[in-house]
């Protein structure tokens, strides 16, 4: 009696392992292939396939006259996705590689004919993969594999795709060329900058705040009156070269520039130097930038310095002239005003209303002229450093109310809405702060049509006194706002050509507020109106006597 057992598929030892490709090779229906069933394969083919499947290096095999294909897991990624895999297994070489067959077939024929093995390094051989024809670079060798007869029966391909390496090298080469080009451009720009610096007579400085070193060019050394060629010493050459009256102020400004949250690293200041060797006094304009690390620590401080001595001397001479002329004009204006008051008193007794009206108009013009003269005097004092602040304890809200009350006659064509509902204590020069409020109110009246509302507001917030005045006037274009508080700056349009002024009012306002350690700014939209603001430090307490003085 015989026992029938089911026939088990034969997996010879040489087809074991090999990962995905080993499994695909074992599962392949080789009986339907030109090579036939593995049981009939030559020992040479079996041994070669075993080596390929169990190698971790990319390998590929063409076998027989039709160059039937085998490959391993290490080679598999080079075929990409949605391309030749897994159809390439058991396929004829010519059918698998039509796009490169004219390139590789001569190499295969050379080896199959008994010629020497080939070696190609970083060879561009485009193949179809990932649904497109891709440029692929390879380093590979073709070696013959002999059959049982000792004659070439196949070609073993040991290869490595080097596409990423080639692209990386190309990127590096491109970067190298860009760096070389940038270096050439940088050198040209440096030469151009150096020429410009020399032409403009600009000095430059560069401080490494980590190392504590400082570099000056020749012009910067000249401006500090030093001729030695030794490294610049911060304490000796820079701080020692500052005018004693400017030293503390400049060190404070530099300290603030090292604080990113306070200054954003910006540095723009004027100061005097006393030459270390020549003892000459020079006025310097310095502008620079502090650079910070990711932790906002100051790392580098660079900038330029310009000799503005002649410019300053011209300003001093001009201010002296303005002060002298303004002072000389003030005396006759005072006399004219006195005569007008005397005439007015006399005309009132005669009940000549027309003459009284004329004298009132003359008086208004004299006041306007006196105001302009006082403005020029204040400019002269400000810029010569002779302005005096008579600070006293007072209330901002009361100063505002007084100015608004005094302007009722001149602003009669406008509706003034006053919003000051709480005591706002400040420590300030009452006369000068009142002048600021009066100037801002006067501007709102001048630059807005009659019948419009002007909102005057003051409030106390976060230990700071705030003032704002909003009008419905002509507004200010963005390009004019940054220059608005500049001395003698006027916006010239068809709307302003008939409005008198010299462009000193807002400049004086800004200077007065800054001398009070406050801030002044404006928000505006052309043709819709403007809102001017200023803020001052609030005082802790205000005595009753100071309040009474405002009455």
UniProtKB/TrEMBL annotation:
Q: Taking every annotated instance into account, which residue ranges of this chain make up the domain PAC?
A: 267-320
Residue span(s) of domain Histidine kinase:
324-540
Give the domain of life: Bacteria
State any GO CC term: plasma membrane
Kindly give the InterPro entries that the UniProt entry links to this protein: BphY/WalK/GraS-like (IPR050351), HATPase_C_sf (IPR036890), HATPase_dom (IPR003594), His_kinase_dom (IPR005467), HisK_dim/P_dom (IPR003661), HisK_dim/P_sf (IPR036097), PAS (IPR000014), PAS-assoc_C (IPR000700)
Give the EC number(s) listed in the UniProt record.
2.7.13.3
Q: Does the keyword Phosphoprotein apply?
A: yes
Q: Which residues form the PAS domain?
A: 189-261
Q: Which GO terms describe its molecular function?
A: phosphoprotein phosphatase activity; phosphorelay sensor kinase activity
Q: Which PROSITE patterns match?
A: HIS_KIN, PAC, PAS
The entry's keywords: Coiled coil, Kinase, Membrane, Phosphoprotein, Transferase, Two-component regulatory system
Locate the coiled-coil region(s) and give their ranges. 165-199
Tell me if Phosphoprotein is a UniProt keyword of this record: yes
| UniProt xrefs under CDD domains | HisKA, PAS
The top EC class, named as a word, is transferase
Reactions catalysed: ATP + protein L-histidine = ADP + protein N-phospho-L-histidine
Pfam families attached to this UniProt entry: HATPase_c (PF02518), HisKA (PF00512), PAS_3 (PF08447), PAS_4 (PF08448)
Example GO BP:
cellular response to phosphate starvation
Identify this protein by name.
histidine kinase
Q: Which source organism? A: Pedobacter nutrimenti
């Amino acid at each position: 009696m015989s026992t029938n057992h089911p026939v088990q598929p034969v997996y010879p030892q040489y087809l074991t392992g090999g990962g995905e490709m080993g499994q695909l090779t074992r599962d392949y229906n080789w009986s339907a292939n030109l090579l036939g069933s593995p049981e009939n394969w030559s020992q040479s083919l079996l041994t070669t396939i075993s080596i390929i499947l169990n190698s971790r290096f990319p390998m590929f095999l063409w076998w027989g006259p039709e160059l039937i294909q085998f490959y391993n897991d290490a080679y598999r990624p080079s075929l990409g996705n949605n391309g030749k895999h897994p159809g390439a297994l058991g396929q004829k070489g010519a059918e698998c590689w039509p796009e490169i067959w004219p390139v590789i077939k001569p190499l295969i024929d050379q080896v199959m004919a008994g010629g020497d093995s080939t070696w190609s390094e970083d060879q561009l051989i485009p193949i179809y993969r990932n649904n497109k024809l891709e440029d692929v670079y390879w380093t590979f060798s073709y070696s013959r594999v002999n059959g049982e007869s000792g004659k070439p029966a196949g070609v073993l391909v040991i290869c490595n795709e080097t596409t990423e390496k080639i692209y990386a090298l190309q990127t590096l080469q491109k970067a190298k060329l860009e760096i070389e080009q940038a270096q050439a451009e940088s050198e040209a720009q440096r030469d151009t900058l150096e020429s410009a610096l020399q032409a403009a007579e600009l000095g430059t400085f560069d401080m490494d705040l980590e190392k504590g070193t400082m570099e000056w060019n020749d012009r910067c050394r000249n401006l500090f009156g030093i001729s030695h060629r030794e490294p610049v010493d911060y304490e000796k050459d820079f701080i020692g070269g500052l005018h004693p009256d400017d030293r503390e102020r400049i060190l404070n400004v530099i300290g603030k520039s090292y604080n990113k949250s306070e200054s954003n690293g910006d540095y723009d200041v004027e100061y005097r130097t006393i030459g270390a060797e020549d003892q000459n006094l020079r006025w310097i304009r310095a502008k620079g930038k502090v650079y910070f690390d990711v932790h906002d620590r100051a790392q580098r401080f660079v900038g330029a310095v310009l000799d503005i001595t002649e410019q300053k001397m011209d300003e001093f001479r001009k201010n002296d002239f303005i002060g002298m002329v303004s002072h000389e004009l003030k005396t006759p204006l005072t006399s004219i005003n006195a005569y007008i008051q005397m005439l007015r008193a006399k005309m009132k007794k005669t009940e000549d209303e027309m003459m009284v009206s004329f004298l009132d108009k003359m008086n208004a013009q004299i006041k306007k002229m006196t105001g302009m003269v006082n403005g020029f005097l204040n400019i002269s004092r400000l810029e010569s450093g002779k302005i005096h602040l008579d600070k006293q304890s007072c209330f901002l809200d009361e100063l505002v109310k007084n100015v608004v009350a005094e302007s009722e006659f001149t602003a009669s064509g406008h509706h003034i809405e006053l919003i000051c509902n709480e005591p706002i204590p400040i420590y300030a020069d009452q006369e000068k702060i009142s002048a600021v409020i009066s100037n801002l109110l006067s501007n709102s009246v001048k630059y807005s049509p009659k019948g419009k509302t002007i909102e005057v507001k003051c409030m106390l917030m976060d230990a700071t006194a705030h003032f704002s005045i909003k009008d419905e006037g002509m507004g200010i274009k963005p390009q004019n706002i940054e220059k608005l508080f500049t001395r003698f700056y006027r916006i010239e349009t068809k709307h302003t050509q008939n409005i008198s002024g010299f462009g000193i009012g807002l400049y004086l306002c800004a200077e007065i507020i800054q001398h009070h350690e406050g801030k002044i700014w404006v928000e505006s939209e052309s043709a819709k109106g403007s809102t001017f603001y200023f803020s001052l430090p609030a005082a802790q307490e205000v005595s009753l006597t100071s309040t009474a003085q405002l009455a």
